[in-house]
Hints:
Elements: E1 4-6, E2 10-12, E3 15-18, E4 28-34, E5 37-47, E6 50-55, E7 67-75, E8 77-80, E9 88-90, E10 106-109, E11 120-121, E12 126-127, H1 132-137, E13 140-141, E14 148-150, H2 156-166, E15 177-186, H3 188-201, E16 207-213, H4 218-237, E17 242-248, H5 250-263, H6 277-285, E18 290-291, E19 297-305, H7 314-322, E20 325-329, H8 331-335, E21 342-349, H9 365-389, H10 396-413, H11 423-434, H12 447-453, H13 458-469
Organism: Anaerocolumna cellulosilytica
Domain ATPase F1/V1/A1 complex alpha/beta subunit nucleotide-binding: 130-349
Domain ATP synthase A/B type C-terminal: 354-453
Amino acid sequence: MAIEYLGLSEINGPLVALExxxxxxxxxxxxxxxxxxKKLGRIVEIYDDKAVIQVFQxxxxxxxxxxxxxxxxxxxxxxxxxxxxxxxxxxxxxxxxNLGNIAAETKRDVNGLPLNPCSRxxxxxxxxxxxxxxxxxxxxxxxxxxxxxxxxxxxxxQLAAQIVKQASLGENSDEDFAIVFAAMGVKHDVADFFRRTxxxxxxxxxxxxxxxxxxxxxxxxxxxxxxALTAAEYLAFEKNxxxxxILTDMTSFAEAMREVSSSKGEIPSxxxxxxxxxxELATLYERAGxxxxxxxxxxxxxxxxxxxxxxxxxIPDLTGYITEGQIVLDRSLHQKSVYPPISVLxxxxxxxKDGIGKGYTREDHQDLANQLFSSYARVGDARALASVIGEDxxxxxxxxxxxxxxxxxxxxxxxxxxxxxxxxxTLDKGWELLTILPxxxxxxxxTKILDKYFKAxxxxxxxxxxxxxx
Length: 470
């Protein structure tokens, strides 16, 4: 029989304390009734007969005397079925699209089950995003976790929406694919932008959305990514679907952790964040992957805004340790009106080498990517030299690299908000770009690949034919 407790011993921000508790357990969900209104909470600390409870819907209207508390005996759970696709939920998995409740097939603990490392399969096969810089240079692989490092004012929301609209398993795949999208601490206009974009583009039917708004309780923000990942694991490992999870913005999640940690009186670590920030982030990010004997997969794209564009800030710093690469957005490219403003050189995908090439994308993919990276690095040197001695004093080859850099930014990195490039278009565009440079500069490409895909520029052909006539 469930025991109901009357009254609280303490209220501190989103936390309440209850004394005289028996049989409570860590992470257990409790129901709090306040003047006929029900709220949910989670036990986050227990010592002796005292329990500290995080209240999801906030502690407004609660007092020490009028609150009834009932222990449920189970952790936070979410109702699941395939019907979650095409639906919109709040941060704790309750429908907010006025379409009624989900006809649940099952309920799952949002904390998930630990994956046996020995049962993991190595990620293979790429996921197409339709964005050239990602597909060619930082390819997303099924089962990978590849974060996007952004900054305040940069178009990461537009990029996230475009990835949701365009993502697929490739042109020839007939496997089931869906997206779980979770937004934490977003403003109403941003949430409306996502919903409207997905509905107008017709992709909403294979997207499950979880929205925690800026005016929603801070504590709910801590549950939102867990709820989204639980839904993704259900669709992937029980319904054999390939799931792409987009989590934005992980900085809001970390700041919610800092706020709640401060309310609990915990000793802060770097920049005021709790010492367990790393383990909390790892708990979320490691819920991506492929499990042996399961046909589905979970792939993650966490998006985070770097405070002051500082990549050494604890959130991007710790994220970089856990994940397999990063995509970095650049403010200087954004100021040049380049969209998406992806900075090529600090961006990488550590798993791309095993999911591209012959049998996956195209045989020339790896060599082409290597050459584009190498050539674009030379652009930086040429620009630095031009800033010192002037562009007119540069050598002929340095001037070609300057032209290569401008063309790459304007025609390869930059693309329209609605432009969905196939992997073939992207790779062909890369080879087109390399024709700006002399063949002897392309030292990162195998000779056989170069002979097959590199077409000498028209100017050189014309010049050589004029020499022959003379």
